[in-house]
Write a structure and sequence with these properties.
Helix content is 24%, strand content 24%. By secondary structure, it is an alpha/beta fold. The protein has one domain (3-260): Ribonuclease Z/Hydroxyacylglutathione hydrolase-like (Metallo-beta-lactamase, Chain A, 4-Layer Sandwich).
């Protein structure tokens, strides 16, 4: 069975009510999580969290507003590449990086992992890759975080084998098997938050677990179908699709599936 390990790679702060409508104005910490997935004697990352590259690429131009609107707290020793190194895991020990979506707090460490396959939804890349200036800022995309050889390294989930989802995952309707994962890792579209946003279903000894990235920012989002502040919709790709995804996560929750979110913190 596959294994999952969670890493916290810096954090940002925001009033809690931005992530959950009706929550307080208390400033909360939202960790940037990344995951190491091990299956069939191979390893993949899901996202990278923050890295020093984020600070470097938001020092000038309109992108300076990114860390001002969303203050970021990160120290270099927290970089995912360094955390993995302390465990004896080097970049070339990995088989690839799954990118849930292209917001800066999920891709900031990509340059620390050269040559690895980059796995994402084609829709997400096509909708994002040409964004610059205010358009990039509005979508929380920092173009300079992408490796110069990105296009040569990309693999799109839509080209992978479609999965006949097990009953436990049937609410998600569509899934794609991660190659060489022994069918224990399924990539699942979770649209709404960002173009091409995806999550990962992992078959562990405890059963299927869902790594849902930013499909929600708090379990309350999907348990009560309560969204974020109306201001948060300004960076979202599709509000209607976002709530449809919340409903699917609610069904998964009611079936007892374990759901992990990237930014779940001290909101409540």
């Amino acid at each position: 069975m596959a294994k999952i390990k969670t890493y916290e790679v810096g954090y940002c702060t925001h009033p809690g009510c931005m992530a959950l409508k009706g929550a307080s104005w208390r400033v909360c910490q939202f960790p940037a999580r990344a995951w190491l997935i091990e299956a069939n004697q191979k390893r993949w990352l899901l996202d990278t969290g923050y890295a020093s590259h984020f600070h470097e690429q938001t020092q000038q131009g309109i992108l300076q507003l990114y860390p001002k609107v969303t203050p970021v707290f990160f120290q270099n020793h927290q970089a995912l590449v360094h955390q993995l190194a302390t465990e004896g895991i080097r970049p070339n020990d990995l088989s690839g990086i799954i990118i849930s979506h292209f917001h800066g707090d999920h891709i900031a460490g990509l340059k620390d992992f050269p040559l690895l396959d980059l796995i994402c939804a084609e829709q997400g890349w096509l909708a994002t890759k040409n964004l610059r200036g205010f358009s990039a800022l509005r979508k929380a995309f920092v173009p300079g975080l992408m490796p110069v050889d990105t296009e040569a390294r990309l693999s799109f989930i839509e080209r992978f084998k479609a999965s006949q989802l097990p009953t436990e995952l049937s609410m998600f309707e569509v899934g794609y098997i991660l190659p060489h994962s022994n069918d224990e890792v399924i990539l699942i579209p979770l649209p709404g938050h960002a173009a091409g946003h995806i999550g990962v279903a992992v078959l562990t000894e405890a059963g299927w677990q869902i790594l849902a990235s930013d499909a929600a920012w708090s379990p309350t989002n999907y348990i009560e179908l309560r969204g974020p502040s109306i201001l948060a919709y300004s960076i979202m790709d599709d509000r209607k699709a976002y709530f449809a995804t919340l409903k699917k996560l609610q069904q998964a929750h009611l079936q007892g599936l374990n759901i992990s979110l990237c930014h779940e913190g001290d909101l409540l």
